[in-house]
Amino acid sequence: MTRTEKEFGDRSNDDIIREILRACASRENPIGRKEIIKYVKEMGYVDEKKEPKIKRTAIEGFAYRMGVRAYETEEECDEIIRECRVTEREILFVKKGQDGRTIGYWMMETLSETEWMFLMDSVLNSKILTKKEADNLANRITFLAGKSFSDLTNYRHRMGNQPYFVGDDDIDEKVGYIESRVLQQVRLIRQAIKQGKKIKFNLCVYDYGNQKVRLVPYGRHGKVLPETPEKYKADVHRICSPFDIIFSNGRYYMLGADLETERRTDLKYKLYRIDLMTDVTINRAKAVAKEEVGLLELNDLFEYRMENPYMFTGKVERVRIRIDADQFTQVVDWFSDRFKVVGYDADESKYYDIELKVNLNSFTFWVLQYSGCVEVLDRGKKGEKSYRNKIKETLKKALEKYEEDER
């Protein structure tokens, strides 16, 4: 006979038991029925006679509905965990003694403490969340993870600032739920893509004025500041057909075509950093689809990200580089397995020759970053127009800035 789940207030018995197990029990410290009932009383779920409203039968019913897994040894517990399906959000365990008596219950969610910590670290070190937004989301993660995890997150208060710190002034941190401005814009853009509509927005840049870093609109005539002539202030609105959203190096980018791009044949799309976009709205106009402009390369976003270590538009070509053997890890870190080793020295201890398919505009910044251990090798092209020569000239200009001090 199926047990009926009793209700009191706005919460069910199952909800109360689940909360107690998540907050007070663990694999190392399972708790029995008596302890669960004790916590029920401490939480104030009692009747007129001060008796707990959840009895032993309610706990047994919860265990039955959850499909409780019983084990005696740690090895048996490990085997149960390995066999659990990914679709199971939470799993109830009961530890038994050798005589079959119940030692205690505990719950495991599909995310471990280490995985909760990873999510927390991702929020606290986000490049798109302001401090108030990150703190609010961290609090909600802590609540979802339960009391046992919250003890591990005290260190978050040592995170004084966020990498992305502009835009907190108008946020009321006392409210329970704060939706990140950037994530809100990601949601709107995805909605526009789904509806096949264009979007309207302002593109901004960082500026320093009045001893403060600020985010200001950027129009065709440059930055739009308080002192900008009125006739230029209206020149900041952009209308764009959004194609896709990609996450790279900790930030969201929108790939799309504005009115200028739609008229050109040499440039199929532009990239916009979504954290630098403001006032995003969905436009009534029908968007141009990426298939209409022949952007089939955007179907594999992982490959696109590998070809663009930094987000720039430009032509994708094959290029060869030589990298010091002890820095080979940098190639794997940035390009996964999307490269080919085409040469190396005799004992494979000095260098590797690597061939990659990359956007040269983007790849230039990567080469300059690792210029101490990376050399560009030309594939066919020679002379002043070669990619190798372009890197050489860029390095010359950089060196000239430092040589000025010695003249």
Explain this structure.
This protein has about 400 residues and is of the alpha+beta class. The chain has 4 domains: about 5-110, no CATH class; about 110-180, no CATH class; about 195-295, no CATH class; about 315-405, Alpha-Beta Plaits (2-Layer Sandwich). It is built from 14 helices and 16 strands. The strands form 4 sheets. Strands 6, 7, 8, 9, 10, 11 and 12 form a 7-stranded antiparallel β-sheet that branches. Mean pLDDT is about 80; it is low at about 1-10.
Architecture blueprint of SSEs:
Blueprint: E1 7-8, E2 11-12, H1 13-24, H2 33-42, H3 56-66, E3 69-71, H4 74-83, E4 90-96, E5 102-109, H5 113-124, H6 131-145, H7 147-150, H8 181-195, E6 197-209, E7 212-219, E8 222-223, H9 230-233, E9 237-248, E10 251-258, H10 259-263, E11 270-273, E12 277-286, H11 301-307, E13 316-324, H12 328-335, E14 340-344, E15 351-359, H13 360-369, E16 374-377, H14 387-403
Helix pairs in contact: 5-6
Order of helices and strands: EEHHHEHEEHHHHEEEHEEHEEHEHEEHEH
Residue-averaged pLDDT: 82
Radius of gyration: 29 Å
Q: pLDDT below 50 for ≥5 consecutive residues: which ranges?
A: 1-9
Largest sheet: 7 strands, antiparallel
Query: Portion of residues in helices?
Result: 25-40%
So how many helices?
14
Going by helix content, strand content and strand pairing, the class is: alpha+beta
For this structure, the quaternary state is: single chain
Based on DSSP secondary structure assignment, what is the total number of beta strands?
16
Count the domains. Answer: 4
Instruction: Give the CA-based shape.
Output: extended
Strand content: 25-35%
End-to-end CA span:
93 Å
